[in-house]
Amino acid sequence: MKKKIFALLAAVTMALGLSGCGDTQLRLNLNPQELYALPELPAQYTALNGLISGILAGGAEYAAPTTGTQVQNVQMVDLDNDGKDEAVAFFRNVGEEKPLKIYIFKTVEEEFRPAAVIEGSGTAISSVNYTDLNSDGRTEIVVGWKVNTELQALSVYALRKGSGEELLRPEEVLKSVNYVKYAISDLDRDALQEVVILRADEEGNGIAEYYTWGQSGNMAQSATAVSMTMAELSRQGRVTEGTLADGTHALFVTGVNDENRAITDILTLSGGELDNILLSASTGVSRCISDFYGLYPTDMDGDGVTEVPVPSRLPGWSEESPVYYRIDWMQFSDSGTGETVLQTYHDMESRWYFRLPASWMEEIIIGRSTISDEAAVTFYRLSSNTEEKPAPILRITAITGANRDIKAIRGGRFILSRQMETTYTAELLEGNELWEHGLTTDEVRGAFSIIAAEWTAGN
Known about the structure:
This protein has helices at 2-15, 32-35, 43-57, 230-236, 404-407, 430-433, 441-447, and strands at 61-62, 74-77, 86-92, 100-108, 111-120, 124-131, 140-146, 152-161, 168-179, 181-185, 194-200, 206-213, 219-225, 238-243, 249-256, 261-270, 273-276, 289-291, 308-313, 325-332, 338-347, 352-355, 364-371, 374-381, 391-399, 414-418, 423-428, 448-450. By secondary structure, the chain is mostly beta strands. The strands form six sheets. Strands 1, 2, 3, 4 and 5 form a five-stranded antiparallel β-sheet that branches. The two termini are 58 Å apart.
């Protein structure tokens, strides 16, 4: 190894002409100031910066979208599929009738030039999405406008060629539909995206509207009722894109009512029409209503099918003891029939969950305790003899603080996971050895998971 290093150093020395051998010598003339100079922007971006500076100097201010994944003041997107990004910039000019402005700049002869402006009324731009809705190779722009504190309106703009190569003509193909939440999804699996809007109708009832590109070149629609109010959808609600047990693509809509109950609707396409497969024909509400536990539909077991969380109360030590939940995760078919495929216990405070063995159902009770830098959940098995005390079988502990790694291996504990500020451990207790459904350390590790920090970019 030393010989290789010396050989490399010798080669570098010779290449720099510092060895003094031979008639040719490479001279390096470096200006120390150049080493610290900031790189210069390409000319096209210098021109773009000048255009934006002019808009700001005219009284405008930046007004980037406030929600979603696209929240930059200036965004680079290839809108016309020519291999070159357009620059899309967001502004507000309070002195104008339509104060919200979306400027589009197109590259012409290696320089950005103004190409189009989309204007809107309201206080802010809620969101923006870019997608090809009609397979013409051009990207449509989906804009959510914040009209006032309580109202949002959604518009879809298709970009057409203008009178010159550098000009674009934004055509509003979906015109200012009020909404609470919306989703862009390929529900019919035709490789084209559609728009689903959730809003209140004239009577205040919740509806979902499905917009797809029609034969006429405009947006065609169908609608179905949803069983939650828009206030319930706004409170802690969410729209989740997912898949049913038979592979059908679906949108899972979750709302939360005043009694902290989760209401779940599932939207699919049936014969080209939007359908709510969980809406009861007799009651007009969802057949899936349960306590809300801060959980939403997700592919819990990694099988490609979306499960809906349905909390179920576990037996308590007494009527005064805290309530603990088992989470039943249900898969649904396209007919709305549900089946529980797994159960978990979630410790939302310490951010972990445990997949419960099927043999434990109806036979366990849970207790949670905290001491300095430790939060422990103990699983107990119930005895058929009502006079016997529940036997402890497993304890999972979240340990924080400076000495957590030392505490993690005390007694019979074994480590499940080390995170940035928390170490998770487990301990098999005396009741585990005497129970036919007891677990091994490997089975405990396999059933334990961290609740990942979640960032949701929905509308």
